[in-house]
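Message: Just now I want nothing more than another pair of eyes on a protein record. I am handing you a single protein, as its sequence and its fold in token form. As I understand it, each token names a local backbone shape. Take your time, and here it is.
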Amino acid sequence: MNLDMRELTIDTLGVLETAALLRELTAGLIAVDDFDEALTELVRIAADAVPGVLWCGFTALRAGEPAGVAASDPRLAELDDLGHGAESPAMDAIRRREMIIAADLTVEDRWPAWTDRARRLGVRGVISAPVDVDERAIGSINLYAGRSGTLGTRHQLTAMLLAEHAGLLLAAVRDRARRAERDSERDGALLGENVVGQAVGVIMTQRGCPASEALDVLRSAASSLDIPLREVAERLVTTVSRPRES
């Protein structure tokens, strides 16, 4: 095989590996509603799927909350944790909104304290890529290598695509979580209404189900009959309250 053909084969394999990574990431996060759970799944998938990367971490900043951390290996979590100091490749990526790469930490001097900890943990290279989630959450995905010189142009491209895709998926996770919270608040308000609460109690007794499932039954009936949920509740309560003929 000549040189051009070998390079083409390597490039093609890189594209296929990246496409497989993004598919796996989508499948892993598409049904998750918890942001921290999504981060844990993200770093696990990335660490397993990106060739040459042994560990993956994520540094998350959310408005009004302490910085969050996820790590594929708990031993390395301190490298993503801003509680150990704000000078790190992850924080540089977040501040500057650009990818940061240090292919050889044995000669790196930009983050002395962080680099010293990384070397002691066996890390020899890092790429940090900024991740834009939404107006209240940003972060950095951090790819770690155990050997100097492992991380190159191909890894930078993968990190860029991974960060872009992760940002979209994490934004969807947060949106689902907000919708679930609104639905929960709405359900609480509905259950607080006397007639709806009574109807839910009737269904719970009849079916032996929890309140949330009973409320879903009411919603389904309202949708099927095309009438307001409160009217369905009123009809049910009236029906069960009506004395039976002897």
